[in-house]
Structure formats: C-alpha cells, structure tokens
Write a structure and sequence with these properties.
With 275 residues, the chain is mainly α. It is built from nine helices and two strands; from the N terminus they run H-H-H-H-H-E-E-H-H-H-H. 71% of the residues lie in helices and 4% in strands.
Length: 275
C-alpha cells in the first residue's frame, strides 16, 4: 500500500474529522440553546441554520478543488485533513509548493511525492506553518487590537468657518489603513499567481510547470466565468450566488483546461514559453 494512504493515516484522519464534527455539533447545540434563551422562535433558528449551511457550500467547493489539486502529489489523506481543520486553500497550496521546492521535489503538486522523508517534511511544513497564528494570536492580537481601536478613536479638532467652535471628528487614518490592508494582501497574492500563469518560469523537464497555452487558457476562463456570474448576481440581486462565484470559476477553468489539452493539437497544448 502507498505510504501516503496507509491504514494508519486514514485512522488518524478519521479521528481528526470526527473531532471537528463533534466540535461543530457541540457549538450548534450551544447556539440553539442560547437562541431559545434570547427568545428566538423555531422558524428564525431554522432559517439561520439553513442559510449558514448554504453559505458553507462555496467554501466546501473551493476546499474540494484544492484537495483534488494536491492529491496527485500528496495523496488524499494529508490534504483532506489539512483542509478539514483550519486549513486555507491559498496557504496550503503555497506551503506545499514551497516545501517541495525546498526539499528538492521537482514538478510541484503535479508530480507524485515518492520519498517518505520528503512527504513527512511537506506535511510538517504545512502543519507547523499555520500553527504560529494560533500560538501567537492570544498574545499579540489583543494588544494590537487595543492600539488600533485607540488610534481609530483619536479625535482631531477642526474649526469650522461658519461656527467659531471646535468640533470633534474621528480620525480614520489607521482604521482606514487596516480596512485596506487585508484586500491589498489578497490582491498581491492573486497578482503573484496571475503573473506565474502568464510568465512563470518552470523546469524544462516538467510539463505544465511553466507558463504556457494551458495556463493562459485556465486563467482567462476563470476570470471570464467569475466576472459573468458576478454580473449576474449583482444585476438580478442574487445574493445567494455571490459566494459561489469563485468556486464556479475555478471548477469551470479546470474542466476547460482538461478539454483543451485533449482537443487542441499536441504542439499547441504543450507549448510553454517559460518551461
């Protein structure tokens, strides 16, 4: 049996998943009890549970797509466990690829890992890398939160021309910076992946590792499909569709890439200008 999908790993993964499910059920029961204490009727509680469950579907689709992307190199168990606990699809993929590169594994996530030592190293990097946020969060987040809130509440006095009196105005300098920081970081990550699809250098001996026809097709299709569904959601006010936009774009792009590889002439399908 493949060491990446041994019985022991499946048992460990099953235990982790059961713990996550038990934790989810525990908090669901606690929330229902608290809702009754607050006087919420059964219909409102049911609607809240239903809407929450529906909004988890897009995230689940994104996670499933990432598991499928990592499975060829790492097997099913490790991606399944990592993305079922606190894993993030952007982090897990980036951590796995960086660990593979550092450990000398060529081909990235498209090539199977056959060395148990390399596999263990990748698993440790993916696990330990994200643990620091949990360890540091209680010690760093609260003091930083207080400083940011205090900075956001600082008031500056301005003198109006009509009334010769001082008024107080909330300064949103740092608060505005915080609001922009997260989207800016996310846009930077997206920009890095887009740049790799357009001009990313790959290893010549590994097909699909560099930018080429298939990477451009995948990128363009993902962007177009996402924009189409985003416009549809806004035009017809389909708020329930908005969380599905990114997963739909990813899945359609992957399907089109597979179809293009099998339909296009071989010389065009395998063309890579940076591979």
């Amino acid at each position: 049996m493949d060491f990446k999908e041994s019985t022991g790993l499946y048992l460990i993964a099953g235990g982790v998943i059961l713990f996550v499910l038990a934790q989810s059920i525990f908090f669901l029961v606690k929330a229902l009890k608290q809702g009754k204490v607050l006087g919420l009727d059964k219909k409102r509680l049911t609607n809240a549970i239903t809407s929450s469950a529906l909004f988890t579907i897009p995230s689940a689709l994104s996670i499933l797509a990432t598991v499928i992307a990592l499975a060829p190199s790492l097997g099913l168990v490790i991606p399944w466990v990592r993305l079922s606990v606190i894993g993030n699809l952007m982090y897990e993929t980036t951590a796995a690829e960086n660990a593979m590169e550092g450990l000398g594994h060529t081909g990235g996530t498209a090539v199977e890992v056959t060395d148990p030592a390399v596999f263990a190293g990748i698993a440790w990097v993916m696990t330990i890398g994200i643990c620091f946020s949990l360890v540091l969060l209680p010690f760093i987040a609260k003091p930083l939160h207080k400083k940011f809130m205090n900075a956001g509440k600082k008031e500056e006095k301005i003198e109006t021309e009509d009334k010769k009196e001082n008024t107080e105005k909330k300064s949103n300098g740092i608060a505005g910076f915080i609001d922009l920081l997260t989207p800016a970081v996310f846009i930077g990550l997206i920009g890095a992946f887009v740049a790799r699809a357009i001009a990313g250098a790959g290893k010549p001996e590994i097909f699909g590792d560099g930018a080429g026809v298939l990477s451009i097709i995948t990128l363009v299709v993902a962007v177009i499909v996402s924009l189409i569904f985003e416009v549809i959601a806004k035009k017809f006010k389909l708020t329930w569709l908005e969380p599905f936009v990114m997963p739909i774009g990813m899945i359609v792009a992957m399907v089109v890439a597979v179809v293009a590889f099998n339909v296009l002439p071989a010389d065009i399908a395998i063309l890579e200008w940076r591979g």
